[in-house]
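INTERNAL TRANSFER SHEET
From: sequence group
To: structure group
Subject: Ectonucleoside triphosphate diphosphohydrolase 1

Please process the attached sequence and return the structure record in the designated field. Keep the field labels unchanged so the import script can parse them.
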Amino acid sequence: MVKVKNPWHRPVVIFLAAVIIVGIIIMVAISVIQNKPLHQKCKYGIVLDAGSSHTSVFIYEWPAEKENNTGMVRQKHTCNVQGKGISSYSANPQGAGASLQLCMEEAKQKIPAHRHPETPVYLGATAGMRLLRMENEEASDKVLDSVAHSLKSYPFSYQGARIISGQEEGAFGWITVNYLSKNLRKPTGTLGALDLGGASTQITFVPQQNIESYDNSIDFRLYGNDYHLYTHSFLCYGKDQALKLSMGKKLESTLKADKTDPIELRDPCFHPGYNFTRTVPNVFNTPCMREMKLANETFFHVGLGNWSQCQQSIRKVFNTIDCPYSRCSFNGVFQPSVYGDFGAFSAFFFVMDFLNLTSDTLATTKQKLAAYCSTPWKKIVENHPNIKEKYLSEYCFSATYILTLLEDGYKFTSNSWKDIRFIMKIGDSDAGWTLGYMLNLTNMIPAEAPDTPLMPYEGYVTFMFLFSLLILVLLLLVYFYFRRSTRTAQKDII
Ligand SMILES: Nc1ccn([C@@H]2O[C@H](COP(=O)(O)OP(=O)(O)OP(=O)(O)O)[C@@H](O)[C@H]2O)c(=O)n1
Ligand SMILES: [Ca+2]
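Return from structure group:
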Protein backbone atom coordinates (compact mmCIF):
# COMPACT_ATOMS: atom_id res chain seq x y z
CA MET A 1 0.00 0.00 0.00
CA VAL A 2 1.36 3.41 -1.00
CA LYS A 3 0.54 6.47 1.13
CA VAL A 4 -0.83 9.45 -0.83
CA LYS A 5 1.41 12.37 -0.08
CA ASN A 6 0.18 15.90 -0.78
CA PRO A 7 1.76 18.75 1.24
CA TRP A 8 -1.27 21.11 1.21
CA HIS A 9 -3.92 18.46 2.05
CA ARG A 10 -3.78 18.82 5.79
CA PRO A 11 -4.23 22.63 6.15
CA VAL A 12 -7.20 22.61 3.72
CA VAL A 13 -8.93 19.80 5.58
CA ILE A 14 -8.28 21.49 8.94
CA PHE A 15 -9.60 24.80 7.58
CA LEU A 16 -12.79 23.21 6.20
CA ALA A 17 -13.38 21.23 9.40
CA ALA A 18 -12.92 24.44 11.43
CA VAL A 19 -15.45 26.29 9.21
CA ILE A 20 -18.00 23.50 9.73
CA ILE A 21 -17.50 23.41 13.51
CA VAL A 22 -17.70 27.20 13.84
CA GLY A 23 -20.82 27.11 11.64
CA ILE A 24 -22.51 24.58 13.88
CA ILE A 25 -21.61 26.60 17.00
CA ILE A 26 -23.07 29.78 15.41
CA MET A 27 -26.28 27.91 14.46
CA VAL A 28 -26.74 26.61 18.00
CA ALA A 29 -26.01 30.07 19.46
CA ILE A 30 -28.54 31.73 17.13
CA SER A 31 -31.16 29.13 17.99
CA VAL A 32 -30.72 29.99 21.66
CA ILE A 33 -30.84 33.77 20.99
CA GLN A 34 -33.93 33.31 18.83
CA ASN A 35 -35.73 32.20 21.93
CA LYS A 36 -36.67 28.75 20.80
CA PRO A 37 -35.68 26.81 23.88
CA LEU A 38 -35.93 23.06 23.65
CA HIS A 39 -38.32 22.80 26.57
CA GLN A 40 -40.24 26.00 27.23
CA LYS A 41 -40.74 26.98 30.86
CA CYS A 42 -43.52 29.52 31.27
CA LYS A 43 -44.36 32.17 33.81
CA TYR A 44 -47.84 33.53 34.42
CA GLY A 45 -49.64 36.68 35.51
CA ILE A 46 -53.32 37.37 36.32
CA VAL A 47 -55.15 40.68 35.82
CA LEU A 48 -58.78 41.26 36.75
CA ASP A 49 -60.52 43.94 34.69
CA ALA A 50 -63.26 45.17 37.01
CA GLY A 51 -65.29 47.19 34.50
CA SER A 52 -68.54 49.06 35.01
CA SER A 53 -70.63 46.39 33.30
CA HIS A 54 -68.72 43.22 34.17
CA THR A 55 -65.43 41.73 35.43
CA SER A 56 -63.08 39.62 33.32
CA VAL A 57 -60.10 37.61 34.53
CA PHE A 58 -57.13 37.46 32.13
CA ILE A 59 -54.33 34.92 32.50
CA TYR A 60 -51.12 35.80 30.65
CA GLU A 61 -48.22 33.47 29.88
CA TRP A 62 -44.64 34.06 28.70
CA PRO A 63 -41.42 32.07 28.33
CA ALA A 64 -39.52 32.25 31.61
CA GLU A 65 -36.15 33.17 30.09
CA LYS A 66 -37.21 35.87 27.65
CA GLU A 67 -39.65 38.11 29.42
CA ASN A 68 -38.21 41.41 28.18
CA ASN A 69 -38.79 40.86 24.48
CA THR A 70 -41.73 42.47 22.72
CA GLY A 71 -44.56 40.15 21.73
CA MET A 72 -43.53 37.35 24.11
CA VAL A 73 -46.48 37.65 26.50
CA ARG A 74 -49.69 36.09 25.27
CA GLN A 75 -53.16 35.64 26.67
CA LYS A 76 -53.52 32.05 27.86
CA HIS A 77 -57.06 32.15 29.15
CA THR A 78 -59.92 34.50 29.95
CA CYS A 79 -62.89 34.01 32.25
CA ASN A 80 -65.96 36.24 32.45
CA VAL A 81 -67.24 36.69 35.98
CA GLN A 82 -70.98 36.03 36.17
CA GLY A 83 -73.24 38.94 37.00
CA LYS A 84 -72.66 42.69 36.85
CA GLY A 85 -69.56 44.75 37.61
CA ILE A 86 -68.20 45.05 41.18
CA SER A 87 -69.63 48.58 41.57
CA SER A 88 -73.13 47.05 41.49
CA TYR A 89 -72.38 45.42 44.89
CA SER A 90 -72.36 48.74 46.78
CA ALA A 91 -75.26 47.61 48.99
CA ASN A 92 -73.75 44.14 49.52
CA PRO A 93 -69.93 44.48 49.37
CA GLN A 94 -69.25 40.82 50.33
CA GLY A 95 -70.99 39.80 47.12
CA ALA A 96 -68.26 41.53 45.08
CA GLY A 97 -65.48 39.29 46.45
CA ALA A 98 -67.66 36.17 46.28
CA SER A 99 -68.47 36.86 42.60
CA LEU A 100 -64.80 36.25 41.66
CA GLN A 101 -64.63 32.72 43.07
CA LEU A 102 -65.49 30.63 40.00
CA CYS A 103 -63.02 32.42 37.73
CA MET A 104 -60.25 32.33 40.36
CA GLU A 105 -60.78 28.58 40.84
CA GLU A 106 -60.44 28.25 37.07
CA ALA A 107 -57.16 30.22 37.24
CA LYS A 108 -55.87 27.67 39.79
CA GLN A 109 -56.57 24.89 37.30
CA LYS A 110 -55.04 26.69 34.31
CA ILE A 111 -51.73 27.65 35.97
CA PRO A 112 -49.36 24.81 37.03
CA ALA A 113 -49.43 24.50 40.84
CA HIS A 114 -45.66 24.98 41.28
CA ARG A 115 -45.99 28.43 39.65
CA HIS A 116 -48.87 29.62 41.89
CA PRO A 117 -46.80 31.36 44.63
CA GLU A 118 -44.83 33.47 42.12
CA THR A 119 -47.81 34.36 39.89
CA PRO A 120 -48.80 38.02 40.44
CA VAL A 121 -52.52 38.93 40.67
CA TYR A 122 -53.67 42.50 40.03
CA LEU A 123 -57.19 43.92 40.06
CA GLY A 124 -57.86 47.22 38.33
CA ALA A 125 -61.29 48.81 38.57
CA THR A 126 -62.42 51.38 36.02
CA ALA A 127 -65.24 53.85 35.48
CA GLY A 128 -68.01 52.05 37.42
CA MET A 129 -65.92 52.25 40.60
CA ARG A 130 -64.82 55.84 39.80
CA LEU A 131 -68.50 56.78 39.76
CA LEU A 132 -69.26 54.84 42.96
CA ARG A 133 -66.32 56.57 44.70
CA MET A 134 -67.74 59.97 43.64
CA GLU A 135 -71.14 59.00 44.96
CA ASN A 136 -70.20 57.09 48.12
CA GLU A 137 -66.52 56.71 48.99
CA GLU A 138 -67.17 54.45 51.96
CA ALA A 139 -69.13 52.00 49.81
CA SER A 140 -66.41 51.95 47.14
CA ASP A 141 -63.73 51.24 49.82
CA LYS A 142 -65.82 48.36 51.15
CA VAL A 143 -66.19 46.85 47.69
CA LEU A 144 -62.41 47.11 47.12
CA ASP A 145 -61.72 45.55 50.55
CA SER A 146 -64.06 42.71 49.69
CA VAL A 147 -62.38 41.87 46.36
CA ALA A 148 -58.91 42.26 47.97
CA HIS A 149 -59.88 39.86 50.76
CA SER A 150 -61.19 37.35 48.21
CA LEU A 151 -58.06 37.52 46.01
CA LYS A 152 -55.73 37.10 49.00
CA SER A 153 -57.36 33.75 49.76
CA TYR A 154 -55.85 32.17 46.61
CA PRO A 155 -52.33 30.71 46.43
CA PHE A 156 -51.10 33.44 44.02
CA SER A 157 -48.98 36.50 44.78
CA TYR A 158 -51.56 39.23 45.51
CA GLN A 159 -50.32 42.60 44.24
CA GLY A 160 -53.24 44.93 44.94
CA ALA A 161 -56.80 45.92 44.00
CA ARG A 162 -57.30 49.57 43.11
CA ILE A 163 -59.26 52.01 40.98
CA ILE A 164 -57.03 52.96 38.06
CA SER A 165 -57.18 56.49 36.64
CA GLY A 166 -58.68 57.28 33.25
CA GLN A 167 -55.20 58.33 32.10
CA GLU A 168 -53.75 54.94 33.07
CA GLU A 169 -56.65 53.16 31.36
CA GLY A 170 -55.95 55.04 28.11
CA ALA A 171 -52.16 54.73 28.25
CA PHE A 172 -52.10 51.00 29.09
CA GLY A 173 -54.61 50.29 26.31
CA TRP A 174 -52.19 52.04 23.93
CA ILE A 175 -49.24 49.99 25.26
CA THR A 176 -51.24 46.75 24.83
CA VAL A 177 -52.17 47.31 21.18
CA ASN A 178 -48.67 48.47 20.25
CA TYR A 179 -46.96 45.65 22.17
CA LEU A 180 -49.17 43.06 20.49
CA SER A 181 -48.68 44.66 17.05
CA LYS A 182 -44.90 44.57 17.69
CA ASN A 183 -44.67 48.31 16.94
CA LEU A 184 -42.54 49.20 19.94
CA ARG A 185 -39.10 48.15 18.70
CA LYS A 186 -39.52 49.29 15.13
CA PRO A 187 -39.11 52.80 13.72
CA THR A 188 -42.54 52.45 12.04
CA GLY A 189 -45.56 54.36 13.39
CA THR A 190 -47.69 53.37 16.35
CA LEU A 191 -51.39 52.53 16.59
CA GLY A 192 -53.73 54.91 18.41
CA ALA A 193 -56.12 53.31 20.91
CA LEU A 194 -59.88 53.92 21.16
CA ASP A 195 -61.65 52.15 24.04
CA LEU A 196 -65.40 52.38 24.65
CA GLY A 197 -66.64 50.94 27.93
CA GLY A 198 -70.00 51.09 29.64
CA ALA A 199 -69.18 54.16 31.74
CA SER A 200 -66.13 55.84 30.17
CA THR A 201 -64.30 56.11 26.87
CA GLN A 202 -60.61 56.69 26.15
CA ILE A 203 -58.65 58.10 23.21
CA THR A 204 -54.84 57.78 23.13
CA PHE A 205 -52.38 58.43 20.30
CA VAL A 206 -49.03 59.98 19.34
CA PRO A 207 -50.03 63.39 17.94
CA GLN A 208 -48.20 65.55 15.43
CA GLN A 209 -49.13 68.75 17.25
CA ASN A 210 -48.08 70.14 20.59
CA ILE A 211 -50.07 68.92 23.64
CA GLU A 212 -51.47 72.11 25.19
CA SER A 213 -52.80 70.64 28.44
CA TYR A 214 -50.52 68.92 30.95
CA ASP A 215 -53.26 66.49 32.08
CA ASN A 216 -53.55 64.99 28.62
CA SER A 217 -49.89 64.26 28.11
CA ILE A 218 -48.01 61.13 29.12
CA ASP A 219 -44.43 60.10 28.30
CA PHE A 220 -42.94 56.64 28.04
CA ARG A 221 -39.47 55.41 27.19
CA LEU A 222 -39.81 51.87 25.86
CA TYR A 223 -37.05 49.74 24.29
CA GLY A 224 -34.91 52.87 23.85
CA ASN A 225 -37.60 54.95 22.10
CA ASP A 226 -39.38 58.00 23.55
CA TYR A 227 -43.15 58.24 23.12
CA HIS A 228 -45.03 61.45 23.81
CA LEU A 229 -48.70 60.44 24.04
CA TYR A 230 -51.95 62.37 24.07
CA THR A 231 -54.62 60.65 26.19
CA HIS A 232 -58.04 61.51 27.55
CA SER A 233 -60.73 59.54 29.35
CA PHE A 234 -64.30 60.87 29.32
CA LEU A 235 -66.10 59.72 32.44
CA CYS A 236 -69.88 59.29 31.80
CA TYR A 237 -69.29 58.88 28.04
CA GLY A 238 -69.19 55.08 27.99
CA LYS A 239 -72.13 53.72 26.02
CA ASP A 240 -74.40 52.89 28.99
CA GLN A 241 -73.92 56.25 30.72
CA ALA A 242 -74.19 58.13 27.40
CA LEU A 243 -77.58 56.46 26.84
CA LYS A 244 -78.71 57.74 30.24
CA LEU A 245 -77.39 61.25 29.47
CA SER A 246 -79.13 61.29 26.12
CA MET A 247 -82.44 59.93 27.48
CA GLY A 248 -82.27 62.37 30.40
CA LYS A 249 -81.95 65.34 28.04
CA LYS A 250 -84.94 64.12 26.03
CA LEU A 251 -86.99 63.56 29.17
CA GLU A 252 -86.18 67.07 30.41
CA SER A 253 -87.36 68.67 27.17
CA THR A 254 -90.43 66.40 27.11
CA LEU A 255 -91.30 67.51 30.65
CA LYS A 256 -90.99 71.17 29.63
CA ALA A 257 -93.19 70.77 26.56
CA ASP A 258 -95.82 68.35 27.86
CA LYS A 259 -96.86 67.83 31.47
CA THR A 260 -99.33 65.00 30.82
CA ASP A 261 -99.17 62.01 33.10
CA PRO A 262 -97.75 59.46 32.46
CA ILE A 263 -94.96 60.98 30.39
CA GLU A 264 -94.23 59.58 26.95
CA LEU A 265 -90.55 59.72 25.94
CA ARG A 266 -90.58 59.57 22.13
CA ASP A 267 -87.08 58.29 21.27
CA PRO A 268 -85.69 58.32 17.67
CA CYS A 269 -82.80 56.04 18.79
CA PHE A 270 -85.14 53.07 19.43
CA HIS A 271 -86.96 51.03 16.81
CA PRO A 272 -90.53 51.82 15.67
CA GLY A 273 -92.96 49.67 17.66
CA TYR A 274 -90.65 49.59 20.72
CA ASN A 275 -92.69 50.61 23.80
CA PHE A 276 -91.65 49.94 27.38
CA THR A 277 -92.66 51.42 30.71
CA ARG A 278 -89.70 52.61 32.77
CA THR A 279 -89.20 54.18 36.15
CA VAL A 280 -87.15 57.37 36.48
CA PRO A 281 -84.90 56.22 39.36
CA ASN A 282 -84.02 53.00 37.49
CA VAL A 283 -82.81 54.82 34.41
CA PHE A 284 -81.25 57.89 35.98
CA ASN A 285 -79.62 56.65 39.19
CA THR A 286 -76.15 57.86 38.31
CA PRO A 287 -73.77 60.63 39.43
CA CYS A 288 -73.38 61.48 35.71
CA MET A 289 -76.80 63.18 35.89
CA ARG A 290 -76.62 65.00 39.18
CA GLU A 291 -77.89 68.33 37.87
CA MET A 292 -80.98 66.86 36.24
CA LYS A 293 -84.10 67.10 38.35
CA LEU A 294 -86.41 64.31 37.25
CA ALA A 295 -89.05 63.57 39.84
CA ASN A 296 -91.65 61.60 37.88
CA GLU A 297 -91.85 57.96 38.73
CA THR A 298 -92.77 56.21 35.50
CA PHE A 299 -92.68 57.02 31.80
CA PHE A 300 -93.36 55.28 28.49
CA HIS A 301 -90.24 54.79 26.40
CA VAL A 302 -91.50 54.80 22.81
CA GLY A 303 -89.28 54.12 19.76
CA LEU A 304 -89.44 56.23 16.58
CA GLY A 305 -86.56 54.67 14.59
CA ASN A 306 -85.18 57.80 12.97
CA TRP A 307 -81.41 57.77 12.59
CA SER A 308 -80.82 61.45 11.74
CA GLN A 309 -83.07 62.65 14.59
CA CYS A 310 -81.25 60.19 16.87
CA GLN A 311 -77.92 61.74 15.89
CA GLN A 312 -79.34 65.23 16.55
CA SER A 313 -80.40 64.15 20.04
CA ILE A 314 -77.01 62.56 20.79
CA ARG A 315 -75.18 65.74 19.69
CA LYS A 316 -76.82 67.49 22.66
CA VAL A 317 -74.67 65.53 25.13
CA PHE A 318 -71.47 66.95 23.57
CA ASN A 319 -70.59 70.56 24.33
CA THR A 320 -68.60 71.56 21.25
CA ILE A 321 -68.92 75.33 21.80
CA ASP A 322 -66.65 76.16 24.74
CA CYS A 323 -62.95 75.53 24.20
CA PRO A 324 -60.14 77.24 26.15
CA TYR A 325 -57.44 75.77 23.82
CA SER A 326 -56.55 76.12 20.14
CA ARG A 327 -58.77 73.09 19.49
CA CYS A 328 -60.94 70.71 21.51
CA SER A 329 -62.77 67.43 21.19
CA PHE A 330 -65.78 68.36 23.41
CA ASN A 331 -66.64 69.60 26.90
CA GLY A 332 -63.65 72.00 26.79
CA VAL A 333 -61.10 69.15 26.57
CA PHE A 334 -57.98 69.81 24.50
CA GLN A 335 -57.37 67.38 21.64
CA PRO A 336 -54.84 67.57 18.79
CA SER A 337 -55.97 66.38 15.31
CA VAL A 338 -56.24 62.62 15.16
CA TYR A 339 -53.14 61.20 13.48
CA GLY A 340 -52.20 57.74 12.16
CA ASP A 341 -54.04 54.44 12.38
CA PHE A 342 -56.29 53.58 15.32
CA GLY A 343 -57.43 50.34 16.89
CA ALA A 344 -61.00 50.71 18.23
CA PHE A 345 -61.85 47.97 20.71
CA SER A 346 -64.30 46.94 23.51
CA ALA A 347 -67.79 48.25 22.75
CA PHE A 348 -66.55 50.00 19.59
CA PHE A 349 -65.98 46.48 18.28
CA PHE A 350 -68.95 44.68 19.92
CA VAL A 351 -71.47 47.12 18.46
CA MET A 352 -69.98 47.67 15.00
CA ASP A 353 -69.28 43.94 14.59
CA PHE A 354 -72.84 43.00 15.57
CA LEU A 355 -74.18 45.38 12.91
CA ASN A 356 -71.61 44.27 10.30
CA LEU A 357 -70.26 47.80 10.04
CA THR A 358 -66.54 47.24 10.62
CA SER A 359 -65.28 47.73 7.06
CA ASP A 360 -67.48 50.25 5.22
CA THR A 361 -66.87 53.88 4.31
CA LEU A 362 -68.37 56.45 6.66
CA ALA A 363 -71.14 57.29 4.14
CA THR A 364 -72.12 53.63 3.67
CA THR A 365 -72.00 53.04 7.43
CA LYS A 366 -74.51 55.88 7.92
CA GLN A 367 -76.82 54.56 5.19
CA LYS A 368 -76.82 51.02 6.60
CA LEU A 369 -77.35 52.28 10.13
CA ALA A 370 -80.28 54.48 9.07
CA ALA A 371 -81.94 51.42 7.51
CA TYR A 372 -81.28 49.35 10.65
CA CYS A 373 -82.70 51.97 13.02
CA SER A 374 -85.91 52.28 11.01
CA THR A 375 -86.49 48.49 11.04
CA PRO A 376 -89.56 47.66 13.18
CA TRP A 377 -88.78 46.32 16.67
CA LYS A 378 -90.86 43.19 16.02
CA LYS A 379 -88.70 42.28 13.02
CA ILE A 380 -85.46 42.92 14.95
CA VAL A 381 -86.59 40.52 17.71
CA GLU A 382 -87.60 37.91 15.11
CA ASN A 383 -84.18 38.16 13.44
CA HIS A 384 -82.26 37.77 16.72
CA PRO A 385 -84.29 35.44 18.98
CA ASN A 386 -81.27 34.50 21.13
CA ILE A 387 -80.12 37.97 22.17
CA LYS A 388 -81.42 39.57 25.36
CA GLU A 389 -83.99 42.24 24.43
CA LYS A 390 -82.31 44.88 26.58
CA TYR A 391 -79.06 44.58 24.58
CA LEU A 392 -80.86 44.17 21.24
CA SER A 393 -82.90 47.31 21.73
CA GLU A 394 -79.81 49.48 22.28
CA TYR A 395 -77.71 48.74 19.16
CA CYS A 396 -79.28 51.57 17.09
CA PHE A 397 -78.47 54.06 19.85
CA SER A 398 -75.01 52.59 20.48
CA ALA A 399 -73.87 52.66 16.85
CA THR A 400 -75.26 56.18 16.34
CA TYR A 401 -73.45 57.23 19.52
CA ILE A 402 -70.20 55.68 18.22
CA LEU A 403 -70.45 57.56 14.90
CA THR A 404 -71.26 60.83 16.66
CA LEU A 405 -68.44 60.41 19.21
CA LEU A 406 -65.89 59.63 16.52
CA GLU A 407 -67.01 62.27 14.01
CA ASP A 408 -68.34 65.19 16.09
CA GLY A 409 -66.39 64.40 19.27
CA TYR A 410 -62.93 63.23 18.17
CA LYS A 411 -63.14 64.90 14.72
CA PHE A 412 -62.54 61.88 12.50
CA THR A 413 -63.54 62.70 8.90
CA SER A 414 -64.80 60.52 6.06
CA ASN A 415 -61.14 60.41 5.00
CA SER A 416 -59.63 59.45 8.38
CA TRP A 417 -62.53 57.00 9.04
CA LYS A 418 -60.63 54.40 7.02
CA ASP A 419 -57.71 54.65 9.50
CA ILE A 420 -59.95 53.16 12.22
CA ARG A 421 -59.72 49.38 12.61
CA PHE A 422 -62.46 47.84 14.73
CA ILE A 423 -60.68 45.05 16.57
CA MET A 424 -61.31 42.67 19.43
CA LYS A 425 -58.06 40.72 19.47
CA ILE A 426 -54.55 41.05 18.12
CA GLY A 427 -53.23 37.51 17.61
CA ASP A 428 -54.83 35.54 20.42
CA SER A 429 -54.81 38.36 22.99
CA ASP A 430 -57.66 40.81 23.66
CA ALA A 431 -57.11 44.51 23.05
CA GLY A 432 -57.66 46.35 26.36
CA TRP A 433 -55.72 47.98 29.18
CA THR A 434 -54.98 44.82 31.23
CA LEU A 435 -51.93 43.51 29.36
CA GLY A 436 -50.24 46.95 29.29
CA TYR A 437 -50.97 47.30 33.02
CA MET A 438 -49.28 43.99 33.83
CA LEU A 439 -46.31 44.62 31.51
CA ASN A 440 -45.76 47.94 33.28
CA LEU A 441 -46.09 46.63 36.84
CA THR A 442 -43.83 43.64 36.22
CA ASN A 443 -41.23 45.86 34.44
CA MET A 444 -41.46 43.63 31.40
CA ILE A 445 -40.94 46.47 28.94
CA PRO A 446 -37.44 47.82 29.55
CA ALA A 447 -36.78 51.53 28.98
CA GLU A 448 -33.66 50.72 26.98
CA ALA A 449 -33.32 48.26 24.11
CA PRO A 450 -31.47 45.05 25.07
CA ASP A 451 -27.74 45.10 24.04
CA THR A 452 -28.05 42.31 21.49
CA PRO A 453 -30.95 43.11 19.20
CA LEU A 454 -32.69 40.05 17.87
CA MET A 455 -32.43 39.14 14.22
CA PRO A 456 -35.93 39.32 12.73
CA TYR A 457 -37.47 35.87 12.24
CA GLU A 458 -37.43 36.15 8.41
CA GLY A 459 -33.76 37.16 8.52
CA TYR A 460 -33.03 34.22 10.82
CA VAL A 461 -34.66 31.73 8.45
CA THR A 462 -32.80 33.15 5.43
CA PHE A 463 -29.51 33.13 7.36
CA MET A 464 -29.95 29.53 8.45
CA PHE A 465 -30.88 28.45 4.93
CA LEU A 466 -27.84 30.10 3.32
CA PHE A 467 -25.54 28.80 6.05
CA SER A 468 -26.78 25.24 5.62
CA LEU A 469 -26.29 25.60 1.86
CA LEU A 470 -22.71 26.79 2.41
CA ILE A 471 -21.94 23.84 4.69
CA LEU A 472 -23.41 21.43 2.14
CA VAL A 473 -21.30 22.92 -0.67
CA LEU A 474 -18.18 22.74 1.49
CA LEU A 475 -18.86 19.09 2.37
CA LEU A 476 -19.35 18.25 -1.30
CA LEU A 477 -16.11 20.04 -2.19
CA VAL A 478 -14.21 18.06 0.46
CA TYR A 479 -15.77 14.84 -0.79
CA PHE A 480 -14.91 15.47 -4.46
CA TYR A 481 -11.47 16.73 -3.58
CA PHE A 482 -10.63 13.55 -1.67
CA ARG A 483 -12.11 11.35 -4.36
CA ARG A 484 -9.97 13.06 -6.99
CA SER A 485 -6.85 12.87 -4.83
CA THR A 486 -7.43 9.16 -4.18
CA ARG A 487 -8.00 8.46 -7.88
CA THR A 488 -4.86 10.41 -8.85
CA ALA A 489 -2.88 8.51 -6.26
CA GLN A 490 -4.25 5.17 -7.54
CA LYS A 491 -3.33 6.17 -11.12
CA ASP A 492 0.15 7.11 -9.93
CA ILE A 493 0.53 3.66 -8.39
CA ILE A 494 -0.66 1.94 -11.55
N1 LIG B 1 -70.11 41.07 23.86
C1 LIG B 1 -70.45 42.23 24.42
C2 LIG B 1 -69.84 42.63 25.63
C3 LIG B 1 -70.22 43.85 26.17
N2 LIG B 1 -71.16 44.62 25.55
C4 LIG B 1 -71.54 45.92 26.11
O1 LIG B 1 -70.52 46.84 25.79
C5 LIG B 1 -70.42 47.83 26.81
C6 LIG B 1 -69.03 48.00 27.25
O2 LIG B 1 -68.55 46.80 27.68
P1 LIG B 1 -67.10 46.73 28.30
O3 LIG B 1 -66.12 47.26 27.34
O4 LIG B 1 -66.89 45.39 28.84
O5 LIG B 1 -67.29 47.84 29.47
P2 LIG B 1 -66.72 47.86 30.94
O6 LIG B 1 -65.28 47.50 30.89
O7 LIG B 1 -67.57 47.02 31.82
O8 LIG B 1 -66.93 49.40 31.34
P3 LIG B 1 -65.86 50.54 31.70
O9 LIG B 1 -64.65 50.28 30.85
O10 LIG B 1 -66.53 51.82 31.36
O11 LIG B 1 -65.58 50.40 33.16
C7 LIG B 1 -71.38 47.41 27.92
O12 LIG B 1 -72.53 48.18 27.75
C8 LIG B 1 -71.66 45.96 27.62
O13 LIG B 1 -72.96 45.60 28.01
C9 LIG B 1 -71.72 44.22 24.36
O14 LIG B 1 -72.54 44.94 23.79
N3 LIG B 1 -71.36 43.02 23.82
CA1 LIG C 1 -63.42 48.59 30.11
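Handover comment: The longest helix spans residues 457-493. The mean pLDDT is 91.
Transfer complete.
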